[in-house]
Amino acid sequence: xxxxxxxxxxxxxxxDSSELPALLKEMRxxxxxxxxxxxxxxxxxxxxxxxxxxFHPGLIPEARGLDTPQWCVYEDIPLGVTSHFIDSKVxxxxxxxxxxxxxxxDDTLVDVAVRLxxxxxxxxxxxxxxxxxCELSELExxxxxxxxxxxxxxxxxxxxxxVKLTKRFPGTAS
Length: 174
Fold this sequence. Notes:
Helix 4 crosses helix 5. Strands 1-2-3-4-5 form a five-stranded mixed β-sheet. By secondary structure, the protein is of the alpha+beta class. The model has no long low-confidence stretch (mean pLDDT 87). The chain has helices at 2-5, 20-27, 42-45, 68-75, 109-122, 124-133, 158-168; strands at 31-33, 51-56, 80-85, 94-100, 140-141. The longest helix has 14 residues, at 109-122.
């Protein structure tokens, strides 16, 4: 609805559809936005003349991959959000913006997850403005030897996560 009102092309299609590259080459898009966690092929990414923007609920490269709120608490990684142009790697590419987020003594895992989501929304306008206007050579490049991305948080670590959560956020335990 929003795209229609703003006269922006919007297509819903599986990220790995065999029809997607041909459609994108026909559309010749300038800038894309990932809406969800997907790994896109280099063929799809290269169809966007400026690139494709992703918002990530973690500070890249320290917190890449899935289940970022859990991993940030478990690994004692500062909370924050990152916007970046994607490449073919997980949560990699050129960094557009990074923003550290506050932590509070009574935070729960839900509070952390919500704050990370809100942080992404709050940086949307400035990120997209920078993405349209910036020269890619001006952006921070992630080092080749960045930390590997996290996978799903394992169920067998949940008890340990709970202990770490109450140590990091002591008001949670009361």
